[in-house]
Amino acid sequence: MRRKRKKTEIGLHAVRGGTIVGDHEVIFAGTDEVIELKHSAHSKEVFAVGAIKAAKFMTDKPAGMYNMNDLISNL
To answer: Strands 33-41 and 22-30: what pairing?
Structure first.
């Protein structure tokens, strides 16, 4: 059964298939206009490099909550 989305709720949709490695789009849709931001990855290597950088960043950190701003500001 489908339910109607609340005005304050952000809609999310995911599609995976074939040989698509990483195709990401963010769409801001309003009345009569759409803004799109897109990222396409052609190899899984880009994700592996990011995971290694994150692991190196965490090596000497105490247990706790970290976010991407912590990682990026340390690059």
So the answer is: antiparallel
Q: What are the angstrom distances between the C-alpha of 16 and each of 13, 19, 20, 68?
A: 10, 9, 7, 24
pLDDT in tens, 15-71: 777 888 888 899 988 899 999 999 988 889 988 998 998 899 899 999 999 988 888
φ and ψ of 7, to 5 deg: -60, -30
Q: Pseudo-torsion of CA 47, 21, 15, 31, nearest 10°?
A: 70
Residue 71 · residue 53 · CB < 8 Å? yes
Q: In DSSP terms, which residues pair with 30 in a beta bridge?
A: 33
Cα separation, 57 vs 70, in Å, equals 9
Is residue 26 within 8 A of residue 36, CB to CB? The reply is yes
What's the one-letter identity of residue 41? A
